[in-house]
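Thread: Newbie trying to understand structure tokens

Hi all, I'm a second-year student working on a class project, and my supervisor (Dr. K.) asked me to get a predicted structure for one chain before our next meeting. I've only ever worked with sequences, so writing a 3D structure as a token string is new to me. If someone could post the tokens and maybe explain what I'm looking at, I'd be very grateful. Here's the chain:
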Amino acid sequence: MNFTDKTVIVTGGGSGMGAATAELFAQAGARVAIVDRDEAAAAGTAKKCNAPDCLIGDVSDSGFCDHVIADVAGRTGRVDVLVNAAGVIARRDTLSTSDEDWQRVMRVNVDGVFYMSRAALRVMKEQRSGAIVNFGSIWGGSGAPGVIAYCASKGAVHQITRAMALECVRDGVRINAVCPGEVDTPMLRSERSGPVTAEMLEDIAGTVPLGRLAEPGEIARVVLFLASEDASYMTGALVDVDAGYSAR
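---
Reply by user tm_fold:
Sure, no problem. This is what the structure looks like when written as tokens:
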């Protein structure tokens, strides 16, 4: 999968699966633009990618998303790939989920995907080419207790992926989603009620048929495939990368 001379934008590129994805695109020859709220984390990924472009802001702000696309397209002349990897989680059940929790998850996970994709599509449709890869989740297709806002947000991402793909199917733009299972990332460890221990991680891994957590790079390789010409006949697809979790 060769992305030489391609311009790739990765949101949430400062850590986890976003960072792993950005690094793989860079290794494949792409010019990568890192988008993240955390300036230090984004700069760290950018250094690993030898990436000149680091855009710091919140994808839940439509104006910022428009700025990202305009800035990158203005300097490189095009946007070939957008990866919507930015995301947050609230580990709360229904009665414990506050208005603020709900809105925060929806703003980043749903609004951010829509705003970034809408801005990118203005460029991609004009250039008659492009690929968008959204980060869905196994929890977007099956429920899970204690993460209701996250489940709802990822279900919305799945439907955005399908509907937007059909809108763009004759415009040379493909839109797919990768749906990870349990991945060893900062998000997996975040918002826990107590310290994250080796025993806790082993318990989570025990819920996976393969018996282990995924590494971020294992998900990133699927993202690169979906963005590549090797996936030229795929659009509107939700690709589970979950070691058999959703096959049960």
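A couple of things are worth pointing out once you decode it. The longest strand covers residues 173-180. The chain has a mean pLDDT of 96. Feel free to ask follow-ups in this thread.
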